[in-house]
Amino acid sequence: MKRITILVADDEAEIADLIELHLKKEGYDVLKAADGQEAVQAAQTHSVDLAILDIMMPKLDGYEVIRQIREQHHMPIIFLSAKTSDLDKIAGLVRGADDYMTKPFNPMELIARVNAHLRRYMQMSQPTTSGKLALEAGGVVIYPDQRIVTLYGETIELTPKEFDILHLLASYPKKVFSTENIFQHVWGEAYFETSNTVMVHIRTLRKKLHEDTNKNKLIKTVWGVGYTFNG
Q1: What is the pLDDT of residue 145?
Q2: What is the three-class DSSP state of 210?
Q3: What's the structural domain count of the chain?
Q4: 20 and which of 30, 33, 157, 231 could share a cystine (Cβ 3.0–4.6 Å)?
Q5: Residue 128 — very low, low, confident or very high, per pLDDT cuts 50/70/90?
Q6: β-pair partners for 99
Q7: Do 143 and 118 share a domain, yes or no?
Q8: What domain of life does the UniProt record list for this protein's source (predicted)?
Q9: What is the domain range of residue 108?
């Protein structure tokens, strides 16, 4: 069985060593990077299944690292940062992170989140012979088996969580999902802290689908309740 490799990028060696210690106890292989440039090189030259990134790193900050990684890879990415404001968390999720934790952090909570993201990612990455039909609506075509989405024939790049949210909503058109429902379905865990994570992912998803300029939105907000697919 292929061993799972996790990239840990943080210029604070003590934090990187602590994370490495706990990850190795879980049986994971660990790659460490002391700056953003090393992190990008590691992701390009190794098979990485999940990345844990600091934001404030030398050479390249975490935002630039995630931008470059997302050009080629779709593995889960967790920001672990001393930047603690809600705006910082939203900025991290908008840039393409699947999760955001603040320092100081509980190593066991980090491991729980790593396990949850990997479990979901591995399940979704399994080859399938299900022959699921593509879902189509408003110029959008979703290919569940290939995890590909096209908009008027052009492939659009979605993060794993963005794809999962879109696929969930499109699979049950007109059904209203609360933010708690979406989080539990997509993250596969009990609902964390706040609804901001789901809200931000839907915001970036809408932008990629050009929903900001489309009057007949595919993802409709049901105020006070949640979201529905208007396909």
Answers
A1: 79
A2: coil
A3: 2
A4: 30
A5: very low
A6: 78
A7: no
A8: Bacteria
A9: 5-125
Report the alpha-carbon distance of residue 17 to residue 219 in Å, rounded.
42
Q: Dig out the tokens for 222 from the structure.
A: 């049901």
Supply the angle between the helices 196-208 and 179-187 in degrees, to the nearest 10: 80
Q: Which two tokens stand for residue 13?
A: 């060696």
The arithmetic mean of pLDDT across residues 178-197, rounded, is 75
Q: Same domain for 112 and 144?
A: no
Q: Write the CATH number for 39.
A: 3.40.50.2300
Strand spans (E) along 41-111: 50-53, 77-81, 99-102
Pairing of strands 99-102, 5-9: unpaired
Q: What are phi and psi of 158, to 5 degrees?
A: -115, 150
- Which range in 115-124, 137-146, 191-200 is most confidently predicted, on average pLDDT? 137-146
Same domain, 107 and 170: no
Domain end point (choices 125, 149, 177): 125
Residue 27 to residue 10: CA distance in whole angstroms:
21
pTM above 0.70, yes or no: no
